[in-house]
Every structure is written in structure tokens, then in C-alpha cells.
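Example record for the data management plan.
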Amino acid sequence: MGYPQVKYYKSAVRVKQEYDLLKPDDVCTAFEQSLRIAVKPEPAGREVKARYSLQAKGLKEPVEGVLTISFRKPE
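Corresponding structural encoding:
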């Protein structure tokens, strides 16, 4: 599977991972590898909120929420 497909937009990033078949109520890891993010030092010591939407053919509607990312100050 490897790292998921990443596509950049003006105000969003789409991360896409495809699966062959998931049966109803199956549980799986969303991404085989952890998602990585690179940022400049400016957000150090702050929290950034990012909206997310999980979509799949079998979902009646997307699962949406807010992810809070905490950036530590360098030691």
C-alpha cells in the first residue's frame, strides 16, 4: 500500500488511500504509514486546528471533525 496519495489545493490538502474491499462494520487502519507534516518554526508552542472529512463509498455521509495539532517548542 505505501504512503497515500497527496494532492494540494489552495486551501486544503487531500490525502487518499484506496482499499480493495471493506465489508460493513470492518475495522481497518486508515493509513499504513503515519501522515507527516513539515512546518516552519513560527507555529512552535501553538496549536493549529485542521478540519477533516473521511469519505467512503459505503458511508451514507462523510465523517467530519476537527483535528488539533500541537507544535512543541524546540528543546
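Summary line stored alongside the record: The longest strand covers residues 47-54.
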